[in-house]
Specification:
Shape: globular
Radius of gyration: 21 Å
Strand order of the largest sheet: 1-2-3-5-4
Largest sheet: 5 strands, mixed
Number of helices: 8
């Protein structure tokens, strides 16, 4: 129950205040054990800066004089929860097992996703908004990672720590082709300033 989680964190939390946005976060102390208050503040500042402007304005308006709770979750099959506007952002504890670079990207993307839900009206159709938010997540992830080879490694890292997540499935569906490891394969060859020659090999397995 979200109210129970918020009440539990309320008893033992660290307060992170973002002066730029006048927003207050109550953060699970176990999360602070793996990330300093300064690091968490920078992650949250970065997430808010990347929000679409209309979402950022709606969020700061709706949360005026309120707090957002960040809690580590033990049994969730999602990377982040709960895709509602209820002042709770749940973070799957398994994310802490990721390599630091991948963990930072996942936290940035996940925080942005959940902040966009918090920016919506509590009675809005959050399920309907989910598909568009996830498309944005995928594009942002590709931008943050850059190298397609790193993108594939990141997906594998996420799959190793979480059983089921729509975000991971969408990443897999949108992933660029795996870089070729065949040293003999030539896709395009520049012969002179006027002509490009393309070569390919047809094998029984790919006919």
């Amino acid at each position: 129950n979200p109210r129970d989680i918020i009440a539990e964190i309320e008893q033992n939390h660290v307060t992170v205040f973002l002066n730029t946005y006048n927003l207050t976060f109550h953060v699970d102390r176990e999360l602070v054990a793996s990330h300093s208050e300064g690091e968490l503040g920078a992650l949250l500042e970065g997430a808010l800066a990347r929000l679409p402007e209309e979402d950022r304005t709606a969020l700061t308006t709706s949360l005026k004089s309120k707090t957002l709770t960040l809690a580590l979750l033990d049994t969730s099959t999602h990377l982040f929860e709960n895709h509602l506007a209820d002042q709770l952002i749940g973070i799957n504890r398994a994310l802490l097992n990721l390599d630091e670079r991948y963990r930072t990207v996942a936290l940035q993307v996940g925080l942005i996703h959940e902040l966009r839900h918090e920016a919506l009206d509590p009675l809005a159709d959050h399920a309907a908004a989910e598909a568009g938010f996830t498309q944005y997540d995928v594009a942002l992830t590709r931008s943050l990672l850059g190298d397609p080879a790193v993108f594939h490694t990141y997906i594998g890292a996420l799959e190793s720590v979480v059983e089921s997540a729509g975000y991971v499935a969408q990443l897999r569906a949108a992933s660029p082709p795996e870089p070729s490891t065949d040293p003999a394969a030539i896709a395009l060859l520049l012969k002179d300033p006027w002509w490009l020659y393309c070569y390919w090999e047809i094998q029984p397995a790919t006919e």
